[in-house]
Amino acid sequence: MKLLGIEKLVSEVRHLQARRVTVAFTNGCFDLLHAGHVDFLRRCKQEASRLVVGLNSDASVQLLNKAENRPINRFENRAVVLGAMECVDYIVGFEEATPEALIRMVRPDILIKGEDWAEKGVVGREFVESIGGRVVLLPLVEGLSTTNLIERIRGSKEHVPLMQEHISEHIRVVEAVIRQVDLLKNIADHLTACFDLGGRVYLLGNGGSAADAQHIAAELVGRFKRDRKALPAIALTTDTSILTAVSNDIGYEQVFSRQIEALVTKRDIVWALSVSGRSPNVICGIQAAKKIGATIIGFSGKSGGEMAELCDLCFCVDHERSDRVQEVHQLAYHLICDRIERRM
After folding, report:
1. In sequence order, which ranges of 132-177 are alpha helices (DSSP H)?
2. What kind and span of H or E run contains 114?
3. pTM of this prediction?
4. Which tens digits make up the pLDDT trace of 178-224?
5. Which CATH number is associated with domain 6-151?
6. Per CATH, is 170-343 categorized as 3.40.720.10?
7. Which of 12, 117, 155, 273 is 20 to 30 A from 320 in CA distance terms?
8. 170-343: same fold as 6-151?
9. What is the pLDDT of residues 98-135, one digit of tens each?
10. Surface-to-core class of residue 56, CB atoms within 10 Å of its CB (0-12 exposed, 13-18 middle, 19+ buried)
11. Taking the domains of the chain in order of start, what are their residue ranges?
């Protein structure tokens, strides 16, 4: 039987590791197993001799901001389907929203997640690396997801209500920004003062946040709505030679901090964007800016993560999903650009 209790699993893993057998760990809901899951799990098994899958309990799935009718399949049924896969060696359930505690008990040699977790921050990364393990991010099969599959099963008639629900949610999150207007004004005024004193703004982020960083730089260097002098803003996400050289020779976590060490002065502002607030390269960049004495502005999601405590000013959107957060980030930085231009 592949489904084990935690004590039995830990005992088995320790026995394997004592014989120098490598053990990999991944986790997920695996509600409706599809070709993307199969491909991912097969490639997980290629990384190690044994593969442990942490499976969210039914209660855990509901904690993950899933729809009310999730999971579709109960835990026992999901475990049976996973257990039928040759590449899966062990399955263990967990009740929490994240597998952090489970990872600490299992102590895998390799922690594996999909590459979509690069910006959000891989739960358990710091612990696994601290015990000498490594973290692997694998590419996902494009266009395959449980959510998309469920929508197709339900039929196109339900797509319109779902879109309406998303639009209503977007409106609620946008309306909540009103409570932070003073903060946005303060951010805009700090930026204006920086430009007036001859300082520059350096922007950074990953994925969609990298695109936002470049968007902001373009609004400031070019123009937002009004003709005025160009403002010095530089996105640290655009020089592919620097990005690839630092990533290859030093490490991806240093890709922003290295540029900040080279370019930023204490009269400048570093503007960091991260939905989770935990992206390692963003945190390293902020820490490098703090050593220099630059002012740090942060844009993040609901909790702000580690980033919130490191920033001088941090705008946190009252939501956790990247789509809602980045939609409001765009609104916020457009409001900031508008105020800057009105005060120039």
Report:
1. 146-154, 159-175
2. strand 110-114
3. 0.57
4. 999 999 999 999 999 999 999 999 999 999 999 999 999 999 999 99
5. 3.40.50.620
6. no
7. 155
8. yes
9. 999 999 999 999 999 988 787 678 999 999 999 999 99
10. buried
11. 6-151, 170-343
